[in-house]
Amino acid sequence: MLEAEARQASGQAISPEAQADEELKLLALRGLMQSDPERAVPMVEQLLAGNSSIKVKTNALFVLSQSRSARAREIITNVAKGGANPDLQLRAVRYLGAMGGPENRQILEDVYRSTNDISVKRAVIRSMVPAGDRARLLSIAKSESSPELRSEAVGQLGALRATTELSELYTTESSADIKRRIIQSLMVAGASDKLTELARTEKDPELRRTAIRNLGVMNSTKTGDVLRSLYSSETNAQVKEEIINALFAQRNATALVEMARAEKDPAMKREIVQRLSNMRDKVATDYLLELLK
C-alpha cells in the first residue's frame, strides 16, 4: 500500500506538503486535458498505473471520463473490468454510464457478464439508468439468477419510467416478491393506469393489496376516484381494508365519507369511521357530528 494510503488507513494525517503536491497534480492534469488532450490521456494512464494516491487516481479517472477519445474509453473500460482498485472500478462503471453512447452501453454489458462481484453488477445496473438502457435492464430482470439483482434491475426500470417494459415483465414473472417490486416500480414511474388494472384484475389478493397500497401513495386527485370505485366493487374484506388505508394515507376524507354513507357492513363502516376520527379535516369532522345527532 502506498505510504499516503497507509497513513489514511491507520488514521494518521497526511502532511500538508503531500496534499499540496496532489492538488498541483490534479490542477495540472485538468489544464492539460483542456489544452492538449492527446498528451493528457497517456499521462492519466500513467497516473492510474503508478503510485499516486487513490484521491489522485479518482480525480484522474473523472478527468479521463470527460474525454471522448477511443483511448480514454479503453482505459476506463480496463478499470471497469477490474484492473484497478475496487473503488476505482465502481467509479469507472458509473462514468461509463454517464458518458452514454452505444459503445459504452455494450461495454457495461460486457463488464456485467464478465464479473461475479455482486457490487460491480449492481453498479452496472445503476449505470444503465443515465445511459437510458431499458432493453438491457429488462433482459437482466428477466434472466438474472440472483433475485437481488433482478429486483435492482426492476427498480431501475421504474426510475426510467419504463412502464411498457415493467408491464411486459409482470405478465411473465412467477416470483411474488419480484411482482411486488414491479408494482412499486410502476408507482415510481407514475403508472396509475397499470396499477389500477392490477388492482382490478390480479388474482392474488396480496398482490392486489400491494397495487392498492401503491395507488394510495400517489396523488389523490389522480387515484382517489379509482380507489373509491374499487371499493364499491370489492368483496374481499382485507382488500377493502387496504383501500380504506390507502384513502386514509391520502387524507381523502371526501371519498371515505361517501364510502361510509354507502357501506352496509357495520364492521367495515367502523373501519372507515375510525380512520375519519383520526383526520383533522372539516369534511371528516362534519360527518362525525352527523353521526352524533
What does this structure look like?
The structure is a single chain. The chain has 19 helices and no strands. The protein has helices at 3-9, 16-35, 37-49, 54-65, 70-80, 86-99, 102-114, 118-127, 134-143, 147-159, 163-172, 176-188, 192-201, 205-217, 220-233, 237-249, 253-262, 266-277, 282-292. Helix 10 packs parallel to helix 12 and helix 17 runs antiparallel to helix 18 (266-277). The termini are far apart. The model is unreliable at 1-18 (pLDDT under 50).
What's the helix count? 19
Largest sheet: none
> Which structural class do you get from the secondary structure elements?
mainly alpha
Helix percentage range: over 70%
Number of strands: 0
Straight-line distance between termini = 80 Å
Shape: elongated
Mean pLDDT comes to 87
* SSE pattern: HHHHHHHHHHHHHHHHHHH
The poorly predicted ranges are: 1-18
Beta fraction: under 5%
Radius of gyration: 27 Å
